[in-house]
DNA sequence: TCCGAAAGTTAGCCTAGGCTAAGAAGTGTG
DNA sequence: CACACTTCTTAGCCTAGGCTAACTTTCGGA
């Protein structure tokens, strides 16, 4: 009986490179996802999404929000009416809806596997951006099975 | 019986800001973790870790590796002997061991909840950096219970 | 109505992490 | 042992996403 596991061989270099590349891609879209999700939440809850509120909730300066919103606008996700708040384009609404659904699913899944609610919220904020469609489907299956067994 | 769930209220602004701040912090350390983990893997598998191999496996240019290694060196994680490869400091070895353990755990966990192995490897590469200690413990408990149940 | 507070923008700065192109420095083989 | 090839570094560029300080614009209450 062996004590130590045989170390797994390194994956092929190209495969590993592809994984890192996809991860870098996910990192690049994460900020946009979090912003549009928050804008959608504020629009629903408050009827408006102001830059100052986004700054407070993101924990970031107003100047940073201005710059980030500029990129979101450039990318066709957001429209602005100064002093009248921010609005989502169709593309922005789509992204927000997807981000929100993903966020909720990841939170529920983490709670279902035994994580406390507050930590689940914390970790979901990062994990959500790195869970593939296949992973989200696995999480959904898990929740459905858990509920059926309930 | 209600059809639609009541939308959850927004969390307190300070809580939400703290979550985003922690996520940004995790993003900043992710590159270092991936590099030292890879260096440790190469040292074990090949007996040396050369910049050119890291570039190939990270999917990045050699110039980028030079710059990143410079930061790791500045931060006391890595030592270099030009043309003789890279070496980890004690701190680097510690970080690599932790990163490796976390990586393996996340992969095994994702497979256990029904994800295919290749996607598990892909998603783990990102998720590993956002799973808190509490989450990792929950994943371990889940795997242990799964094993006990057979 | 006006004037101070709040909200937003602008300017100027920074670091991380990417890139290409060009040059320097080892390595190993004929 | 020389020279071609590989490896590594340097220089110069870029974008995202942070910051502070100073300015402008709008809003609302006295
Ligand atoms: Mn998030
Ligand atoms: Mn989110
Ligand atoms: Mn990783
Ligand atoms: Mn990893």
Automatic annotation (TrEMBL), chains A, B:
Keyword presence, Repressor: yes
Family: Belongs to the DtxR/MntR family.
Gene Ontology MF term list: DNA binding; DNA-binding transcription factor activity; protein dimerization activity; transition metal ion binding
Protein origin, superkingdom: Bacteria
One cellular-component annotation, GO: cytoplasm
Matches recorded under NCBIfam families: PRK11050.1
Biological source species: Neoroseomonas marina
Description of how the protein assembles with itself and partners: Homodimer.
Protein name, entry field: Transcriptional regulator MntR
Assigned keywords, A-Z: Activator, Cytoplasm, DNA-binding, Manganese, Repressor, Transcription, Transcription regulation
Cellular compartments annotated: Cytoplasm
Region (Disordered): 1-25
Function, in words: In the presence of manganese, represses expression of mntH and mntS. Up-regulates expression of mntP.
PANTHER family associated with the record: IRON (METAL) DEPENDENT REPRESSOR, DTXR FAMILY, TRANSCRIPTIONAL REGULATOR MNTR
Gene encoding the protein: mntR
């Amino acid at each position: 009986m062996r004590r130590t596991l045989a170390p797994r061989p390194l994956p092929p270099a190209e495969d590993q490179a592809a994984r890192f590349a996809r991860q870098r891609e996910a990192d690049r879209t994460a900020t946009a996802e979090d912003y549009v999700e928050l804008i959608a939440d504020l629009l629903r809850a408050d009827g408006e999404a102001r830059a100052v509120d986004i700054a407070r909730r993101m924990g970031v300066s107003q100047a940073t929000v201005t710059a980030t919103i500029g990129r979101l606008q450039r990318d066709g996700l957001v429209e602005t009416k100064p002093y009248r708040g921010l609005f989502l384009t169709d593309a922005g609404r789509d992204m927000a809806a997807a981000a929100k659904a993903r966020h909720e699913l990841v939170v529920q899944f983490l709670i279902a596997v035994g994580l406390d609610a507050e930590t689940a919220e914390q970790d979901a904020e990062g994990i959500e951006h790195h869970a593939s469609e296949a992973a989200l489907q696995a999480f959904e299956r898990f929740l459905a099975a858990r509920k059926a067994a309930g």
